[in-house]
């Protein structure tokens, strides 16, 4: 029987981090902790987490190191001590460092692509470490296609490993959740996303601009925006310009422990984004029993299962589809939640990771 593998995991953030990339890293690390072929994993993060909490077995996460040089020196030092069998490159920007370490100690290398970072043509310095990886994990079919088109390898070294959804996102008491967020007597559309400085790509604009028409043809409607960022002032001004400021509620950064109730409270989850690598928030919402709508662009198609799980339309048809989705009777939450688990549950994800690791053993 081969000895358990040791992995050095380079990431922007993981346990204690906020957002889709941090969650994906936590999910991969949790899956690795369950894999019989894995002995130990050391995680080096760039960003300082809010609170790490308890870690899965076999996983050790070091405190963040500020500065690229300090991070690189820490990574090289840990690699020389740990002597990992695999160097996991958790972000495109870590590629050169990960490749240097893997070559230095004779380790295999896995690279992770989250989405938009590879949708445009990559500079050779970014592309080369990916091409020299033993395996490249892509969160969606679209991301894989974008990488494969650029790669000069004779044989593709990429596979799709979609997101999963945590057990905390499940059915619950919807009425209690609605009272918690003061939603009695109104229909609520919800978007959970960073208010990115690349204003507009998440699609908040599309909903705000259509909100007046929605309120005229439906009962009372409110739009809940969870998340914060530099685009918030622009969106607040847009709400005022469209005359719907009283219908839009900016919730700021919602604590992770409150997100399940927020999803349950909403009547419809909407993220008409043109730049999702995958869109884990779709899974979170639908796992809590709330129907979802998005665009058939990028990785959103995978999360919505091309329309099998949630509404998936082009940009032109979105206003009408949003109107129809809000009018449509709420589907059976149990069936929706079960369908998400069957396609994207933890067991399925863990199997994806074990299969990926089997390529390198």
Q: Outline of this structure?
A:
The protein has 361 residues and is of the alpha/beta class. It folds into two domains: 5-164 and 345-358, 3-Layer(aba) Sandwich (Rossmann fold); 174-343, Glycogen Phosphorylase B (Rossmann fold).
Major sheet = 7 strands, parallel
Mean pLDDT comes to: 93
This entry's quaternary arrangement is: single chain
Number of strands: 13
Name the poorly predicted regions. none
- Fraction of residues in helix: 25-40%
N/C terminus separation = 11 Å
Brief descriptors of the model:
Rossmann fold; 14 helices; 361 residues; alpha/beta
Structure description:
With 361 residues, the protein is α/β, with parallel strands linked by helices. Helix content is 40%, strand content 18%. It has helices spanning 20-34, 68-82, 95-105, 124-131, 141-150, 174-180, 204-217, 232-241, 259-265, 280-287, 300-303, 318-327, 333-344, 346-358, and strands spanning 5-11, 38-45, 59-62, 86-89, 108-113, 135-138, 158-160, 187-192, 221-226, 248-252, 268-271, 292-295, 311-313. Helix 3 crosses helix 4 (124-131) and helix 6 (174-180) packs across helix 9. The longest helix has 15 residues, at 20-34.
